[in-house]
Write a structure and sequence with these properties.
Distance between the termini: 28 Å
Structural class: alpha/beta
CATH architecture: Roll
Strand order of the largest sheet: 1-3-4-5-2-6
Number of helices: 3
């Protein structure tokens, strides 16, 4: 909802979740190439905290790990295409494995987009559109996710 005045774009510190295909959920490091970014996700940088969701679209369970971004590189836009979603390639060092499940089934109940709840923010940003992506999240949503570790 960038550009729509949504309360979830007012972020002070940047913490990011990524929803992507994960081949090894127990890996020590993760590499994701040319990932779509939304809701401020293009601002991801080395040293940022990240929460990794193994995309249910590819058979994953949702939240699996947290980590620290060890590299982030913006992908150049293609010439001649008017509207393009910014993309970045990142690598992550895992710092913790999730202790409880959090995915589409747990978040789908939170669909009152204006209720201000962190669960609703995550549902909106990750599951309203099925697209895998990196997103920026609020401090409240980051605190909520930290409770799963």
């Amino acid at each position: 909802m960038e550009g729509q005045g949504n309360q979830w774009c007012e972020m002070t510190s940047m913490v990011f979740p990524i929803k992507a295909e994960v081949s090894d959920p127990w890996a020590e490091t993760f590499a994701f190439s040319a990932q779509k970014t939304m809701y401020g996700g293009k601002h991801i940088a080395k040293g940022d905290t990240i929460f990794i969701f193994a995309s249910e679209n590819e058979g994953g369970p949702g939240l699996i790990a947290s980590g620290v971004v060890t590299s982030a590189k913006a992908i150049a836009k293609k010439r001649g295409i008017a509207q393009q979603t910014p993309r970045v390639s990142i690598t992550i060092r895992r710092t913790a494995l999730a202790k409880r499940r959090l995915g589409r089934s747990e978040l789908k109940l939170f669909s009152n987009w204006n209720d201000g709840r962190p669960e609703t923010e995550l549902n909106f940003k990750f599951y309203r559109q099925a697209t895998n992506k990196i997103a920026g999240i609020s401090d409240e949503a980051a605190a909520f996710l930290r409770g799963f570790f």
